[in-house]
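Throughout our pipeline, every protein is held as a single compact record rather than as scattered files. Such a record has a labelled line for the sequence and another for the backbone structure tokens. The remainder of this section carries one protein's record, kept here as part of the documentation:
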Amino acid sequence: MTTSARIAAIVIACVTWIGLAVQLQASTELAGTVPSAIWAMLRFFTVIANLLVATVFTILALGGRVAPSLLGCITLAILFVGVIYTLLLRGLIELSGGARLADLVLHHVTPVLVPLFWLIFARKGGLRSVDPWLWALLPLVYFIYAIARAALDGRYPYPFMDVATIGWAQTAVNAVVMALGFVIGGYVFYALDSWMSRRSTP
């Protein structure tokens, strides 16, 4: 990894951990205890995706290696967070203070910085045609996890998976559509990865 790439990884890791820490503080004020706040935060795909970003980029910042498939998956996941938030979730909840800052970092900053890192610094040519289908397991597993949690406490993280309001059929359709969107996005990444690899080859 080049010095520039490592510095970029350090910046992304720090920014993401700070965003998560600010969100934890804001959530703790509402939940009352840190464990309760963490449990509440882990209801959301945004938090899970940003945790994955923070972990992977900490590894990169420390000089470790990350498989191209894993970096591609994390990049697509956080980009997915930004797109879904912008299209479906923006403005649904009025935020202030730390929660507003965390919202800015986790929904806007990291979904921009991570794809830029992938475009500029990631080694190209390492993605496989099967990767997009493997990556789609992430949102599908999350959907199952979130619905199972909601079955226990009745709290759905997002309106598009609120079974109590929109029903099982629409929720299932939404899950399939998002998984397919993930697959399509994955193949865009795969095609771009292949094209950039060919361009860099003498």
Notes: The mean pLDDT is 90. The two ends are 20 Å apart (CA to CA). The chain has eight helices and no strands.
